[in-house]
Design goal:
- The chain has 174 residues and is of the alpha+beta class.
- Helix content is 42%, strand content 14%.
- It has seven helices and four strands.
- The chain has a two-stranded antiparallel ribbon. It has a two-stranded antiparallel ribbon with strand order 3-4.
- Strand 3 and strand 4 form a beta hairpin.
Length: 174
Amino acid sequence: KPNQVEIAAKLSPACHALFDYLPSDIQQQLLLDRDPHGNVQVSRIETERLVISTVSEELRKRKSNGTYTGKFTAISHFFGYEGRSVMPSNFDCTYCYALGHTVGALLESGKTGLIAVVKDLSKNVNEWKPAGFPVSIMLHMEKRAGHMKPVIEKALVKLDGRPFKTLEKNRSVW
């Protein structure tokens, strides 16, 4: 497994400078094992410690320059995904409320093996249609740890695709 020095040597000058700026423990966390799809496991990177470390370093520099005389004592807390998210929009809240009702209706009627969905989201909320979508339709077989397993295939957002272009066009309105 490559170490921080070996990785840094393979980076472009700009990326190398950014990597060098990061505290050593954060650099190490970036080199941790990837998820099954090869992605960095962002939830394992202690972003709260990164913020504390960079703020502490900046204040140390300011103190040595005589532009800061205060005291900084930080206490970290891990917020997980919640710490990296933004406030939900009105649409987000209404959509999740509708999903919750859909789940309740599916459970009440004894339906299992379904994912709750809400259709016609571009229409007025009163015209949204709750439904259940079979999980089995989304599954395909992949080899994981030497064994074939049913998994939901990873789907990336196509930035040149129609759905994303529609979002981009309407983002400020939505």
